Description:
146 residues; binds calcium ion; four-stranded antiparallel beta sheet; Immunoglobulin-like; mainly beta
Amino acid sequence: MNKLLLVAAGVIALSGCDFAGNSDAVNASISSLQVTNLPVTSDEDGSAPDVFFEIQNAAGRSYFRTAVVENADLSAPVVGAVTEEIELISGTQPLYIAAYDFDGTLRESSLMARSAVFTSDEVEAAGDLTIGAMDGANAAQFTVSR
Length: 146
Ligand SMILES: [Ca+2]
């Protein structure tokens, strides 16, 4: 009986090793996201769009979502704070910022602009990293701050 309990305890200890093979993981040093020159749109009620940001990977998976800036003044920089650590595969993992107009639910929110690719290492080196829109699709300009 005692031997069985010891074996069970060993299995539990081994299954706790979730981090094996993930030793390159890094935390992104990002404190805020900012965008200027978003395409001008308005909500159905005629008010300015309610903007939030996501930090995404190439597949569109969201790593972090900011709070919603209601009725954002698009003539000024729109800023979203990054309030938690973001764990990445590596400092060179390709990342994007997507700015959305929040329409009541996440599913119905519409994409306003997506940035060109950047990496956590670039933010680390630059402090404030400025990036254009993906594929030059519009005039939006994003700033990622350390
Ligand atoms: Ca609005």
